[in-house]
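Running log. JK asked me to keep both predictions on one page so they can be read side by side. First protein, sequence followed by its tokens:
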Amino acid sequence: MSGSSASYIFALLLIGFLLIVSVLFFGYVFTLASWAVSTKIISVLVYVAVVALGFNWFQAGQIANLKYQVTASGKGSETLFSDLYQNSPVAYLRTDATGRILHGNAAALRLCGMQTEQLVTNNLFSLIREAEVDAARALNLEQRIYAGQFVNEVEAELFVGGGSRWVLVSAFPYEHNRERLITLIDITEQKAVDIAKTEFVSLASHQLRTPISAILWNLELLTNVLGNAPADQIAYVDKVRRSTEKMNGLVNDFLDATKLEMGTFATKTGPVSLNTFMAHVLESFEAQIAGKSLELQAHIPATEVVLATDEALLHIIVSNLISNAVKYTPERGQIGVALDVVGNGVAFTVRDTGIGVPANDQPHLFSKLYRASNTKTSPTEGTGLGLYVVKQAVELLGGTIAFASTEGVGTEFVVTLPYQS
């Protein structure tokens, strides 16, 4: 039985006992014929006062006991928190709002390779560097921590002991927002595995390009040699060519993705006439649009718009978005492509009346190798790399990408690039 339950039962028993005693006392007093009425009344009042004092004394004791239990519980919680903080395998740091390190637990000391006296002479932001700054986010990691915002697992590089390690940084306001509680989760080994996988994919893709190019070249020669061959033979060759071209596209997607991830994509910035560029891109999709009887609504400014950017990256962005619109829009649907000058940059808009993206899939749409659930039941093919590559390319050009989609209604993507890419 808990202490509170025992106290409650004891209080009930005490009240019952007092009621019984009171009835007996009052009955006895008022049956005494020798006592005057005033004496009887005074006796009752004295009895009531004694009972009230006793009850108040009991209540005060209960309150004091409760305060003691709360204080003891609070001290126990503080001790538990302190033990968890100090002995946790996760590295914890306490800093002020500016990032000055106030304390670190044992795991933080091991991760940083320092003693407490040395650790507290550092500023957190002199030790870490955010891996990727999201252009769509107003504040970087340092500014978010300073502002007292909650930060959840931001990838950063930790520079300690003459080398560096990769960590996931989380931050929480602490001590009435005067301090920050920082967690550092070491992901160096996972990062090394990811880099090794990326390098392997890049190497394999490079090795595949040569034989695929040879197959395509020989198929072209074979088509010319066949000339007036039977239709079924030509159809077989066309089928092989289409499959090889799909394989070539897949390899190119993997190469683009790995180059962007590893930072080895060779960018070349120069003036690009966006009017001419958009006309050429749309021309490359004319056959596919006509094949599905799609209605194309193109809005390109009459005046020339020139942007200093990397044309190859820009082609990856726009062609992927238009390709998806054509691919996932049913026959006789509509596709809209627009180029607009907005503020200090330009905006590319691609919208369609296609299958849309389910709400549950939208947070993962730009993830690597991710395909929306409703695309898996459609007859279209895809790798799940297109939008991932698009986002990487947009960020490399210093731009932003946003989208709105309703399943069964359609999707609209808007890419905004600054004039100084």
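And the second, directly underneath as requested:
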Amino acid sequence: MKLYFLISLIVKIKIQMILKIIIFQAILLFTVVPEISGNRNPSPKKQLVSEIDSILQSQVNTNKIPGAVIIIKQGNKILYKQAYGFAQKYDYNHILLSPPEKMTPRHLFDIASLTKVVGTTTSIMLLADRGQINVDDPVSKYIPAFGAPDKMGVTIRHLLTHTAGLYEWYPLYYMASEKSACYKLIESLPLRFPMGEQRRYSDLGFVLLGEIIETISGMSLDLFMEKNIFSPLKMNDTGYNPLKTADYRKIAATSAGNPYEKRMVYDSTLGLRIKEIDPAQWNGWRSYILRGEVNDGNAWYANGGVSGAAGLFSTVGDLQKLVTVLMNEGKTGNIQFIKKETIDLFLTKDKFNNGLGWMMDPANSFMKNGPEGTFGHTGFTGTNICIIPEFNTSIILLINRQNTGLSPSGDYYNVNPVRLQIFNAVMKSLKQN
């Protein structure tokens, strides 16, 4: 009897063990197989991340760009945020650093002409929002020199849309070495193109918008932006002249001096030579790697680093804070930072297919054929912002392309195809969801 009981117990234990093995294998089967299947058919998000990694890492690996940082956001969710390559790869003599400084999402970038939208356009938005300015006001209301017969019809709208007829570019530092002299010089220049009849992208118009912001507010441009934009939105790493205002250690390097801008002055084939300027009459060019000093010559040499056209430094995280406000109809949290009606006004297309300050033309190479309402801007140093309201999505891509140096043809590497590849990858992913 005892023997029978013992045999029964052993059989029972073995059966339980076999059942446990069967159950374990079944669990394993149903957890592993979907994972394998998922790897064969990755989600749109995984596909997007993989494609972006491939695009940007290949650019770094082939020495086309030193580094980059990207952030993509949809609604309240960050889809992807990543840094690639190096914040500085070469020294002034184009010798490879040993080791190069690794790029991080915390690095500050010279955002170049993104200053026009992040700082200057937003400032004009706020003043319009408060009833302190109307975009159809004549510029002469704030700058008396524009009361001249050929300029009296120029409005704030013309400046914002690059249709005032101003010079597209002028080496102001050949004639002016500080802000007030710079303003007077621009005011004295004749119009170069018929007012309101064509879009001619002009830095000078945004320098004048900076002057107007100062006139209305009674503050310096950098102080107005700090008090009215960057501080309220907690954009703590955004501002002008970062080397003077804080102990920043993570700043992406740009160019070795200003070799391309010097070419703009000297090389008549670029079509930017000013006949009254003798290129040899000024020789204050910088001869070191620019890191924390604005690349733009007019902003640095003629305006002390503070201009309505260029000069701001920022991070992808800070830029996203402002972009999120624009995507959320002017709200930051529960606070109405800018009225929705004001944002709608600035994002209404003109006859040249652009908004006030912001580019909206789907022919633009960095957001080509984007959905209706898509807007953004680029910066010469390699930066760009693109916002796609139809999908509640934004792309911020910062590239420090200038640290690779000029090509044999005397140009910086063209990052527009890279921008478009990223934009197309995001659009493909959005349409698959």
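Observation for JK regarding the second prediction: Confidence is low (pLDDT under 50) at residues 1-7, 21-38.
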